[in-house]
Amino acid sequence: MTMDQKWTKRYEAFAEHQAARGIDLQSVKKSILAHHIETPSWGYADSGTRFGTFSQAGAARTAQQKLADAAMVHRLTGVCPSVALHIPWDKVDDYAALSQYAASLGVTLGAINPNLFQETEYKMGSLCNPSEKVRAKALEHCYECVEIMQKTHSKNLSLWLADGTDYPGQDNIRERKHRLEECLGAIYDRIPNGSRMLVEYKMFEPSFYTTDIPDWGVSYSLCKKLGEKAEVLIDLGHHAQGTNIEFIVAYLLDEGKLGGFHFNNRKYADDDLTVGCINPYEVFLIYRELVDGWTDPRLNPDVAFMLDQSHIMKPKIEAMLQSVIFLQETYAKALLVHAGRLKEAQLAGDTIAAEEELKAGYDADVKPLLAMIRIENGIDPEPIAAFRKSGYMEKIIKERSK
Amino acid sequence: MTMDQKWTKRYEAFAEHQAARGIDLQSVKKSILAHHIETPSWGYADSGTRFGTFSQAGAARTAQQKLADAAMVHRLTGVCPSVALHIPWDKVDDYAALSQYAASLGVTLGAINPNLFQETEYKMGSLCNPSEKVRAKALEHCYECVEIMQKTHSKNLSLWLADGTDYPGQDNIRERKHRLEECLGAIYDRIPNGSRMLVEYKMFEPSFYTTDIPDWGVSYSLCKKLGEKAEVLIDLGHHAQGTNIEFIVAYLLDEGKLGGFHFNNRKYADDDLTVGCINPYEVFLIYRELVDGWTDPRLNPDVAFMLDQSHIMKPKIEAMLQSVIFLQETYAKALLVHAGRLKEAQLAGDTIAAEEELKAGYDADVKPLLAMIRIENGIDPEPIAAFRKSGYMEKIIKERSK
Amino acid sequence: MTMDQKWTKRYEAFAEHQAARGIDLQSVKKSILAHHIETPSWGYADSGTRFGTFSQAGAARTAQQKLADAAMVHRLTGVCPSVALHIPWDKVDDYAALSQYAASLGVTLGAINPNLFQETEYKMGSLCNPSEKVRAKALEHCYECVEIMQKTHSKNLSLWLADGTDYPGQDNIRERKHRLEECLGAIYDRIPNGSRMLVEYKMFEPSFYTTDIPDWGVSYSLCKKLGEKAEVLIDLGHHAQGTNIEFIVAYLLDEGKLGGFHFNNRKYADDDLTVGCINPYEVFLIYRELVDGWTDPRLNPDVAFMLDQSHIMKPKIEAMLQSVIFLQETYAKALLVHAGRLKEAQLAGDTIAAEEELKAGYDADVKPLLAMIRIENGIDPEPIAAFRKSGYMEKIIKERSK
Amino acid sequence: MTMDQKWTKRYEAFAEHQAARGIDLQSVKKSILAHHIETPSWGYADSGTRFGTFSQAGAARTAQQKLADAAMVHRLTGVCPSVALHIPWDKVDDYAALSQYAASLGVTLGAINPNLFQETEYKMGSLCNPSEKVRAKALEHCYECVEIMQKTHSKNLSLWLADGTDYPGQDNIRERKHRLEECLGAIYDRIPNGSRMLVEYKMFEPSFYTTDIPDWGVSYSLCKKLGEKAEVLIDLGHHAQGTNIEFIVAYLLDEGKLGGFHFNNRKYADDDLTVGCINPYEVFLIYRELVDGWTDPRLNPDVAFMLDQSHIMKPKIEAMLQSVIFLQETYAKALLVHAGRLKEAQLAGDTIAAEEELKAGYDADVKPLLAMIRIENGIDPEPIAAFRKSGYMEKIIKERSK
Description:
The structure is a homotetramer. The first copy, chain A, is an alpha/beta fold. The first copy, chain A, has one domain (about 35-320): Divalent-metal-dependent TIM barrel enzymes (TIM Barrel, Alpha-Beta Barrel). In chain A, about 50% of the residues lie in helices and about 10% in strands. The first copy, chain A, contains 15 helices and 12 strands. In chain A, β2 (about 45-50) and β3 form a beta hairpin. The radius of gyration of chain A is 22 Å and the shape is globular. Chains in contact: A-B, A-C, A-D, B-C, B-D, C-D. Chains A and B meet through α6, β9, α7, α8 and α9 of A and α6, β9, α7, α8 and α9 of B.
C-alpha cells in the first residue's frame, strides 16, 4: 500500500463519519485551501533569549535566504504564499528586485514590520520618547516603511512598539499617550487606501513598568481614533495570564477592528514557542470564534494570519512547517463543529451538549483530511517528512556555511 | 503633654521639612479635606467566601443599621458623607424616609448598586441571558434602581454584571455582546441628566470561562457608544495579575471616561481585602496619576471614590476606618510629590531623580499631617482609638443581638 | 447499521492505524479498564460561588442519594467503583449500614474528607489556630474521620486545610507551622497501616494573604517528616498561573510521594470546572508523566484518581460522566504514545520528532477505542446518551422534589 | 544650618517618637550597621533585554573596573564590603592578585557564580543535559569555580541553572532530575567545610516549558539530600505571580535551609528592576520575617544578602546606591515594629491592631535614622547626592572611553 493509498483509506473512514454528522467536507476543504498563513522572514534567522543566542547551521542571514526558506515552506504546504519583512533586518537597496526574486520563488512580500526598539536612541521610547528629535527619527523610519510597502505591494504595516517605562516616575503616562496619538496619526495619514496599519499590543517586555500599548483596549482606542485603515493585531503571547483571547477575537471581529494575528504559544510570558505547543485547544477556540464571526455578513473576513515565533530548540524550517500544519488542522477542527447543533444546544441551555458538539470538532483526527487535501493538490501529504527527504537542509547548511 | 500637643509637635517637624521641600501644606490640607470617600452599606454587614460566612456580633442587618454605622465612620473621619446602597439588600418601602433618616445621621445616600446575580434566573446571565424574559426581568430591576436614584438623589448608578459563561460553547460570545449593548442602551436612556452610569469590569468570578465585561477595554468601548453619562468604574481587585492599574487610571482620565473607583486590595484574585494591605505603593501611584491628571484643565475632576471590601477577618467599622485613613494618607503622600522637580527629572531622562522625588512623597510619614487636619476640624486625631473608646461597638452588639 | 456496528467499524480503522504504529492495543485496553476514578459525594449535591448557590432539580441531599447517583455513574462507565465522603456533610449514625447500602448499589466508600473550614471557630484557622482549644476541636474531628475510615474500610484520609491568614501581621507564620506539624503528627499516628494520609495544598482561598499549605513544596516537606503513610495530593486548580503541573507530578512520583489527584480544570483560580474543559492537553501531559513513571519498577503505582469539581452550569450526573469519559480518553491517548520512538527522538535531540510522537497520541481520536472497550464489557458505548435515555434523571427529580 | 544639623534635627524628632513607642534605637542602629549587602560585579556592566543591549558611558568592562565601582558603593554606604563574581565574565589569571586588588580598594570577593547557560553546548541543558559529555563540561566548570572560591576565600558558591526544556516531549523530566541530583552531589562533595552551595530556583526563562529547578520546593528537596552545606537561594523575581515570598522566607528559615537572597524587583516576570521599586511593602514583610526568625535561637542567622539586578534605565552605580539604601531603610522599618505589641495583638485575634503595629514600622520615615547612622560613622548622610558631587562618574567615563 503506498502512502497515498494509506491516507486515502484513512480519509474514507473519516469522510464517512463526518458525512454521518452532517458536515459538508467539500466546503471544509475549500475553506482550508483558501486559508493562507504568512511566515515571517525573521523566523528563518538565528534568535535567542537575553541569556544567549544559539546559532543553527544553515540559518538564513540575508533577505534572499529567508525568502528561499519561506518559499520552501510554501512549496511543501501550499498555503504560505507571502513573507513578512522586518526593516532594517531585511533592508535592501532595490525592493522591486527583491519582489521579483520572491516572485521567482513563488512567493510575495507581505507585511512590513518597522523596528523601533534596537537603536540606542530608543532606550526611553520611540514614538513616545520625550525627545522630539527621537520621535522624528522614529517617524522617519515608519515613513520609510510605508514607502517600502508601496514598492513591495505589501498591504499591511505591522506596528509593534516596545515603548514604555521601567520605573514609576520615569516619564509622564498621559504625555506619552499624547505623543503616541500624534505620531500614529502622522503615519496613518500616509497609509495608502486599500492598505492597513495593524496596531499590536503587548503587556510587557522589554518595558517592565508601563508599556504604552499594553492591551487590546489601548490598540482598539487608538485604531478607533485613527480611522478605518487601522486595525488591531493580536499576538497570542502578549496577554496577562488567564486572559480569554478568544473573547477578544470575537469582540474585535464584531467591532470590525480585528486586523490579524501573530501566532505563537507561551506558557509563561512572551515565550514565542511554536503555536499550539502548550494549549492547542485555545487556538481551536480562537478559530471557532472566527468561523462563527465569518457567518455574519456584516463582518470583514480580511484577517491577516501571520506566524511570529522564535525557534531556538527547533530547526527553523521544520518549526515553521509544524506550525502551519497545526494551524490548518486546527482550522479544520473548527470547521467540523456543526453550527446548527451548537446553536440549538446553546438556546436550550444544554451546556453539556454544546460542549460535546465543540469537542466533536476538536477531538476529530483531521490528519487524513489534511493529507487528502494535499494529495488532491499535488503536495506531499506529509510535509515534514517530505522536507527531511528533500535534501534542502543539507544543501543550505553547505551553501551558507561558506 | 496631651495627645493634641504630641501631634502638634510632630506636625511642626513635618511642616518644617515640607516647607524646605517647597510644598504648600495649606493647599495639601484643603485637597485632603475635599477628598470624600463613599462607604458601602454592605461593608457593614456579614460576608464570607464560598466556604462559609462568619457572623460578627453587632454586624448591621437593616438599611438603617448600615446607615448608622456609616454615619459613625463619617463622624470619626469627617470625609465619608455618603453611603452606597445595594438593591434589593437595602430595599425599603419609603426611600424619602430613608434619605431623611440618613440626613438625621449626617450622611446622604450615594451610588445605587443593582443586583443582577443572586436570583436563580440569572444562572446563565442577566442582561446577556439568551432568554428575552430573563433580560426583561433584569432590565426591570435596573429601571427600578434608576427610579430609586431619583428618590434618593443619588448621582451614580453603579453597574456590575456577573454575566458570563463557565464553559466553551455554552453561549455565543457575540450574541451576548449584542444583547448587552441593547440592554445597556435601554438603561442609559433613563439615566437623568446630571447623573451617571458607572460600568464596572471584572476579569472573572463568578463566571469562569468568559465574562461579558472582563476588562477596561470593554467597559470603555461600551461607554463610548452609550454617551457622556456613561463612565468606567475601576475596582482594584478585578484585574489580571501584573496589570498596571495606574496606567489604566491615567488613560481613562485622559479619555474623559474615568468614572470612579471601588477600592480594596488583593494578592491573588478578587480577594476584597482592605485597601492598601498588600501593595500600598500601588495605591499611591494611582493617586499620583489622579493628582497629575487634575492639573489638566481639560479633564473632569469628578471621580467617585468608593470602598468595596469584604471584612471577614476584621471588625467591619474598624476596617472601614482603617481604609479611609489609608486613602487619606496615600492621597496626602501623592500631594507631597513636587510636580516641578518630577517633571524636570523626567525631561532630563534622570530616572533616579524622578523616582527619588516620587519616593520623597511616598516615604513621608504623613500621620502628623492627618492628625493636624483632624484636630483643626474638631475631630479626634486617632479615629480607630477614638472608636474603641466610644462604646459604640458595645452598644450595637447589645442592641442588635436582640 | 446498529450503533455497535457503527462503533465496531470505526474501531477497526482505528486499530489498523495503531497496529501500523506499533501499538499493542490489548495492553492499552487492559490499562484503561484497570484505571478507576473515584467520584466525590459532594459533586452530586448543590454548589455555588460566594455570589449565590443555584439549586438543581434532583440534586442529591442525603448520603444515600449521593451514593445512588455515584452508582449510576459507575453503572454507565464501569470504572467508578468508589465514592469519596465528606464529613460532616455525609455524616450518618451507622457507617457499616452505609457501606452495606453502597455495596448493594455496586460501589464502595472511598476517601474520607474532613471539614476544617465551615465552623465559626475556624475563622482564624483549624490545626494552625492560635487557640489550643480550637486546635483540639479540629484534631477531634480528624480523629473521628480516621475512625470512620476504619468503619468504611476507606484507604485514604484526604486532608485539605483552609488555614491561613488574610492580613500581614495577623498571625506568626512560623508558629502556625509548628502548630501544623504537631497536629499532623498526632493525626498521622492514628492512620492505620495500609492506609494513607493525603496532604493537599492550595495557593489561596479562602485565605488571601498566607495559606499554611500553599504549594507542593510544603506538602512534600510535611509528608517527608510524617513518614511513609503520608503522601501529597494534587488538585489541578490549586496552583499559581503558569505552574507546570506535569513537572510536579513527575517529581513527586520520582520521590515516591505522589498520593493522588483531585481532578478539575480552571482558567483563572480554583474555578472547579469539569476536568479538561480549558486545557485538555495539560491533562494529557500529566497522564504521559504517569505512564512514563509507571515503567520504573521503583515507583509506586498506587495513585488515587479522584474528581473534585463544582457543577454549577452542568447537570451533576452528566458532568461526572463527561469528566470520567474525558479522563479515560486522555489516559488512552497517553498510552498511544510510542515510548521507544519518543525516547529515541529525545536522545537524538530531535525536538520536532519527539513532539510529533507525543502529538500522535494526543491527536488520535480514541472514541472508537473507548466505545469498543465498553461494548466488550457490556456497557453502552455512549454513556451520556445512555443516561439521557435511562429515565434516571426524571425519576430522581420526581422522587427528590417531595 | 548645615546638612548634618538639618538631619540631626529631624533625627531628634524621630528618636523622641520612637522612644515613646518603646523602641531601643541603639539596638536598631547596631543591627543596621551589621547588615551587609553584597553587590554583584555584573551589575556594574552593560546589560539589556533580548531586544537589545544599551551601552552606558563609563560602564565597567573588566573585573578590576567592576571592583572599583563596587568599592565606591561601599565607600558611600559603609555596608557593601564584598563583591560577587561571575565566571567566566570575571575570569582572571591570578585570583590572589585580584583579591589583593580588592583589598586595596577596601572590599573582598564574595559569592562565586558559575555560568552554565551561554555556551552553545548548553542549549539542551548543562547539568541535566542528556549528553554525558556536556554534563562533564558543566561539572568541570563548577569544579573550577569551587577552586576559585578557595583562592578568593569566598564562602558561597551561588548556583543558578538555566536548564529546562521548551517543548513537551523534548526530554524526560525524571531522567533530567536523576542527572541533576548526580551532578549536584559531585559538586557538593568538593565544597569546603565552612562554605556553602546556594541553590537558586526560577520559575521560567530562558526555558519556557519545564525548568529543572523551578521553585523553592525543588531547591529545598535537593538541598535536603545534599546536606548541611547546601541551602536555598531566593531571587525575588523568580516566582509565579501572587506567590507569597515572605512565607517561603519564614518556612525556609524555620527549616534551617535559607541560604540567601538575590534582591531585585519585578512587576511581571524576572524583570530585574531595582529592589523595592514596584512593591516596597513586600520587601518590608520579608525583612519582618527575618527579624522574627532571628529571635529564635535555633535558627541560623547566616543569610547572604546580595543584589542581582539589571540596570538598563538607571546609571549603574546610582542604581546600586539606591538599592542598598532602600534595603537599609526597609530593614530599619522592620526593626521598628514592636514585637511585643504585635505578638499580643496576634494572640488576642486583633487583626487591626496587629496590622497597625506592622504599619507603625513601615510608615515611619527612617531617612533621619539612616542619615544619623551614616553621620555617626563618618559617611555622607546622602550617598546618591555625595556620589553626584564626587566626580567619580565623570572620571570613569573619561578613563573607560579610551
